[in-house]
Write a structure and sequence with these properties.
elongated
Length: about 130
């Protein structure tokens, strides 16, 4: 999961830079996804080096992604009413939640798999412990 987190962080930075360039540098708000991407990359790297905190770090990364799914969608709904919004802003506010939604799905699958793995390991230890008695 740390490598997936790093990959999605880089993806958010690319989305941010591309929409900024395609919008011809209008607005520094275009770099908000890049900041989120940098935070996700930081979480991914930290969880690689601090394995004992990986669970907590990955949950923090998922929380950031959940916020990134909800907030831009609220902004897109607000942008639907005024007709003078830039296309790249709307595009960015659709791509970021989409990417973060995919990341959330993958993270949840990873968390479920880890939980199943821990449960099967603990039941195997209990079973093998009973045989020794």
């Amino acid at each position: 999961m740390p490598l997936i987190t790093i990959g999605f962080g880089v993806l958010l930075m690319v989305i941010s830079i591309l929409t900024y360039v395609l919008a011809e540098g209008q607005g520094a708000g275009a770099f908000a996804p890049a900041v989120l991407g940098l935070l996700l990359v930081g979480c991914g790297v930290a969880s690689i080096f601090k394995r004992e905190y990986r669970k907590h770090i990955m949950h923090g990364a998922v929380l950031l992604a959940a916020i990134a799914v909800v907030y831009p969608l609220i902004v897109v709904i607000d942008f639907m009413y005024p007709p003078s919004q830039e296309n790249m802003t709307v595009t960015r506010n659709i791509l970021v939640p989409l990417a973060c939604g995919v990341y959330l799905y993958l993270a949840i699958q990873s968390f479920r798999s880890a939980r199943r793995s821990r449960s099967s390991n603990s039941t195997n230890e209990v079973d093998s412990g009973d045989d020794k008695s």
